[in-house]
Amino acid sequence: MEICREGETLRISDLDPFLAELLRQIPMSANPEGTPTAEARLFSKPSTEKEACAEWKSYVEPELRRLFRSATDTVAADLTQLNGNEKSLRNRTLRIPFEHADAWLNALNQARLVIAERNKFTDEELNDHDRSPIGSRRDLSLFQVNFYGFIQEFILREMESK
After folding, report:
1. Strands 92-97 and 2-6: what pairing?
2. What is the pLDDT of residues 45-72, one digit of tens each?
3. Which of 30, 83, 85, 124 would be a feasible disulfide site paired with 110, CB 3.0-4.6 Å?
């Protein structure tokens, strides 16, 4: 896999089918439905004060949900480049318009938070970058969190250099 900037596009090329599939899972992974702790992380209350929380839920949370959904929709649209026959995913290239960088950062962050909450990863697990190969579904989920973090880091680095 190679990641670089090409003009106003972020290019991820030489994608193998495994990493392409992980990327295709971003929108689904970002959905906190069925995981109350993930919902609480994404839509954390601003205060312990009841009235402030009620106003937050009425006025701010709906807009946050709309922004999160919009970011995920943008990423899903970009990921259509990877749709099709699984065999054709070998050495594919994903081009992300630089103007979509914020949406990608948002959706990747959502996905990382939701996956971490679903798996109840500890801080120690999340910070263990020398973890052994994938041996279970939980290991795969941890790899996914770290892979998404790697993509976020690249996007942020390119945004700073612009």
Report:
1. unpaired
2. 888 899 988 988 898 999 999 999 999 9
3. 30
pTM above 0.85, yes or no: yes
Encode pLDDT of 84-109 as tens digits.
665 555 678 899 999 999 999 999 99
Per the CB < 8 A criterion, the answer to whether 28 and 46 are in contact is no
As a dihedral over the C-alpha atoms of residue 148, residue 150, residue 156, residue 157, rounded to 10 degrees, the angle is -160
Q: What distance in Å separates the CA atoms of residue 27 and residue 76, rounded to the nearest whole number?
A: 6
CA 128 vs CA 25, 41, 120, 132: distances in Å = 23, 22, 15, 10
In the 8-state DSSP scheme, what is residue 110? H
Separation between Cα atoms, residue 65 and residue 84, nearest integer Å: 29
Distances (CA, A) of 40 to 44, 112, 135, 152, 161: 5, 14, 30, 22, 34
